[in-house]
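Good morning N.,

You mentioned wanting to compare the apo and holo forms, so I went ahead and generated the holo version with cytidine-5'-triphosphate. This is what I fed in:
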Amino acid sequence: MAVALIVAAGSGERLGSGRPKALVPLAGRPMLEWSVAAVRAVEAIERIIVALPPGELDAAPPETEAVEGGDVRSQSVRAALRASGGGDPVVVHDAAQPLAQPKLFERALDELLRSGADAAIAAARVSDTIKEVGEDGLTVARTLERRRLWAVQTPQAFRREALERAFATASDDLLATATDDAWLIERLGGTVRIVESRPENIKVTTPADLHVAEMLLEERVR
Ligand code: CTP
Ligand code: MG
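and this is what came out, ligand included:
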């Protein structure tokens, strides 16, 4: 049976609300609870492990298991993975993406099994034109081909063995630079498949994002 790891141990520096971002109220409940509710509705997922900031383990919602997160996101994923026993596949999700729906988790799991890949990750087509700059940081070097670009989200579903190997071979320094877990699979030559998601599955980073998430969730509840 599958397990879900929800990482919620960040401090929410850029949101600036003076408390861990995952615990900030959002459309009537702590942000984390939106993700937990979505995961609970996925039949294939048997256990939910939540990585929380040290001293906040009491904030784990019912029917979830709390672990202490690490200094950087990947370390929180690693702590939750270790605590998750033998569940396979493993679905990793950020509490900072409270709009992810059960269907998206199911599609990631289905694609992982159907394709035989090591990972299947939610991502949205990019609608902006993206340019790459040179060493000086502000002179345009080239314009990327938009139809090949995807903005990566969570959930990300993994074969347990592939994810464990990726973490076992990554140093703490490397983990500190990883902004998503699929990259750890890519660097070992593993196969990562995209599951098309919508840009509305936003990641809450700033106060403006929180505002948008609030509007979208209130609309959904109505
Ligand atoms: N996360 C975590 N452990 C960390 C850092 C981040 O579990 N040490 C989680 C966050 O709780 C979030 C997700 O990883 O759900 C994505 O991180 P991010 O959006 O950067 O959240 P924060 O680190 O909390 O925000 P900031 O970087 O602004 O401090
Ligand atoms: Mg962060």
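The longest strand covers residues 150-158.

Happy to go through it together on a call whenever suits you.

Best,
F.
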